[in-house]
Amino acid sequence: MSEFKSITFTDSEAGLFSFAQMNHLMKVEFARARRYRLPLAFVVFVVDRLSDLSKNFGYKARDLVLERFQSVLRRETRSCDFVGRFTDDRVLLLLPHTDAEGARVLVNRVRRIVAMQEFEFEGKAFRVTISAGISQYRDGNTLFFDTVRDAAEMAAQRAAAIGDHVMYMDSAQASPPGDRNAGPG
Asked: How many domains does the chain have?
């Protein structure tokens, strides 16, 4: 009798790809997008004021928020999209065959869903918001996947600097400097 071992491609706790796995997937999808001239969007999500949440409620509350947020991402993305860890407090989305406008639609939907959720920890209720940075590869605008990934990270940093519940598109995409669809409506 032969024994098969399962290969796990995701972080066992969160069901997300690790940073190393995401780097590999980005290389593969970037090469495919370049070869076939397909759009490819990158999104970096940040939970707003996550460090304040940890200070006020503790790390278990922080983990609860991240777990529910990641669950929303897995539910709202397509089977061909990749969701993974970028840093400890950031999540990276790789969206094959998606342009910046398609990414913007997804980001706004996810931001709205998360903003509408009420969290409860040790009898205390609270809400969170998320911000996001978007960039895209399109028709030869760069030679390296990490340039597009880093542009999404810079856009996420700009979004976080603007305030809570903000989406920012990389300026190279000829998009408005900020899109603040504040509120869950």
From this structure: 1
